[in-house]
């Protein structure tokens, strides 16, 4: 299938690790020119060495740094056709959790992707083509999680924004990951092998965590010309976990 992606220009946040890194690689393989954004320079420079991209080091939770990063990415590529909001982090928290923690986690998981999209959307609309794809999360959460609430807000923002820009050839969608191998899954969320095996047996019909490339394929499709009639929706990539949640 011809995806119509060659020569398009994409900004991928969270591209130093995990799902964002896999999406950036998959887009590069389709001939997309990339700006990759994260705080850590070394992995971004590795990507630049492989694909000749623009590396933008920035803490996206800082609005001024984010605006400067967005402008630098657009200047480096001559414009951005595709935005992939992949940066984020889970934030388990209890009732009565600190307001400062809620504010910090909303800044990362909701305000940053919304603000970045709203900065890049006007140029996409005036060119008559654009894609915004945001990674959200499992919508069937058990415990309290700051990121879960922020991602729910991002899901609703995506739906609303999709209808605002639909007539200009721009689509806005979300991908809801279940459990895919990444730094945070390996090191923070499921570090223990026995717990991991129990979690998989209880929750994931496909019987394993996903590979980042399995989600990246969905992101590439949503970014492509072939997804022109898909907007305002969420595609879940979770090995069947949403249906199996107890
Ligand atoms: N993997 C899963 O199964 C899963 C499940 C549910 C939701 N998600 C969502 O999918 C997205 C990717 O997750 P992942 O599992 O691939 O995570 P990961 O391996 O921890 O990678 C997170 C990425 O976000 C970047 N990032 C974090 N905080 C940042 C900040 N303040 N400023 C700039 N960049 C920042 C990190 O780069 P630096 O550290 O270099 O800044 C890194 O590139 C996240 O939004 C996450 O919430 C993933």
TrEMBL record:
Signal peptide start and end residues = none
Q: Which UniProt keywords apply?
A: Oxidoreductase
Enzyme Commission number: 1.1.1.100
| Organism phylogeny | Bacteria, Pseudomonadati, Pseudomonadota, Alphaproteobacteria, Acetobacterales
Q: What family does the Swiss-Prot or TrEMBL record give for this protein? A: Belongs to the short-chain dehydrogenases/reductases (SDR) family.
Q: Which GO terms describe its molecular function?
A: 3-oxoacyl-[acyl-carrier-protein] reductase (NADPH) activity
The entry's protein name is 3-oxoacyl-[acyl-carrier protein] reductase
UniProt entry tagged with the keyword Oxidoreductase: yes
- What organism does this protein naturally occur in? Endobacter medicaginis
Taken from the record, one Pfam family name reads adh_short_C2
* Broad EC category: oxidoreductase
Q: Which domain of life is it from?
A: Bacteria
UniProt-listed InterPro entries: NAD(P)-bd_dom_sf (IPR036291), SDR (IPR050259), SDR_fam (IPR002347)
């Amino acid at each position: 299938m011809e995806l119509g992606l060659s020569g398009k220009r994409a900004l991928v946040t969270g591209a130093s690790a995990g799902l964002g890194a896999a999406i950036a690689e998959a887009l590069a393989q389709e001939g997309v020119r990339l700006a990759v954004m994260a705080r850590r320079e070394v992995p971004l420079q590795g990507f630049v060495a492989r694909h000749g991209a623009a590396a933008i080091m920035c803490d996206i939770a800082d609005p001024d740094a984010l605006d400067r990063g967005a402008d630098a990415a657009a200047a480096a590529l001559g414009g951005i056709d595709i935005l992939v909001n992949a940066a984020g982090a889970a934030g388990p928290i209890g009732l009565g959790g600190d307001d400062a923690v809620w504010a910090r986690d909303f800044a990362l998981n909701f305000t940053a992707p919304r603000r970045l999209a709203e900065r890049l959307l006007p140029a996409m609309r005036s060119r008559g083509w654009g894609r915004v794809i945001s990674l959200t999360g499992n919508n069937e959460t058990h415990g309290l999680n700051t990121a879960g609430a922020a991602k729910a807000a991002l899901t609703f923002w995506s739906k609303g924004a999709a209808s605002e820009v639909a007539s200009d050839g721009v689509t806005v969608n979300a991908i809801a990951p279940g459990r895919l191998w990444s730094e945070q899954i390996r090191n923070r969320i499921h570090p223990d092998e026995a717990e991991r095996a129990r979690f998989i047996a209880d929750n994931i019909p496909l019987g394993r965590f996903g590979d980042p490339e399995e989600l990246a394929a969905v992101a590439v499709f949503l970014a492509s010309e072939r997804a022109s009639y898909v907007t305002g929706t969420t595609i879940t990539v979770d090995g069947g976990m949403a249906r199996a949640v107890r």
